[in-house]
Amino acid sequence: MTLPRQRGLTEQAADAAIDTACRLLRLPSIRNEFNEIADRAIKDQMTYRGFLAELLMTECDDRARRRSERRIKAAGFPREKSLRAFDFDANPNIDAATVHTLASCEWIKKSQPLCLIGDSGTGKSHMLIALGTEAAMKGYRVRYTLATKLVNELVEAADEKQLNKTIARYGRVGLLCIDELGYMELDRRGAELLFQVLTEREEKNSVAIASNESFGGWTKTFTDPRLCAAIVDRLTFNGTIIETGTDSYRLASTRARAEEPAKAV
Fold first, then answer.
1. Residue from 210, 131, 211 nearest 175 by CA
2. What is the per-residue pLDDT across 41-54, written as a single tens digit (0 to 9) for each?
3. Model confidence over 200-238: pLDDT tens digits?
4. What is the DSSP string of 180-241?
5. First CA to last CA across the chain, in angstroms?
6. pTM of the full predicted structure?
7. Relative to the CA of 17, which of 26, 46, 147, 236 has its CA 20 to 30 Å away?
8. At 105, is the secondary structure helix, strand, or coil?
9. Alpha helices in 26-146 (DSSP H)
């Protein structure tokens, strides 16, 4: 389709032409915000180049936002969590400076692992999802999964002769987030399949895990001592370990809220 070109368009005709052109060129942000930006350009006495730059940056920013939203959705997070919403004062075991350094995603760029170790309610999953979200916003492909869900998927893939394909798919993402590692015992086959995924990613792409067990207790999950040691080695080599402690700040917060009405009375 060729748009008619002529000089001296009326304002209405110009608006219609801009709308049509933006649809053809797939520039939804410019189409939606053109009038507001044009009015601001007149008010601020922008140059033509400045006005054009403003339009193009609006489109670029919106596209970047939409790409981030798609990556976050594709990651499969069970709920929204952000670093901004985390109460570092409630859990002094978690160093805010360390976490904010991790949010820069340099460790992912270097293909290093991250381990979040602590009891339930100490912020492990919140940190895992929040840092995974930060990675997705910075352009990395991220995948979140529960440890048992991942193992079940690998077992089914092996039974259906699709194991190599499944391992390769998990190997390609920039950051693999494995939650609730250590909650349930894995049989030898399941542990070996999980080990294959970790081996596929070793020093190529990052893995972040959250576990309610210290490394010494992982023999309950991985009953083969040698396999357990190999898995711990892959998840800790050149990595960051954050121990979130044993006191549930989530439970403490719930108790504090429950006590407030009583104090008021």
1. 131
2. 999 999 999 999 99
3. 998 899 999 999 988 888 888 888 889 999 999 999 999
4. EETSS-B-HHHHHHHHHHHHHHTTTSEEEEEESS-GGGGGGTB-SHHHHHHHHHHHHTT-EE
5. 73
6. 0.79
7. 46
8. coil
9. 28-44, 48-75, 96-102, 106-109, 124-137
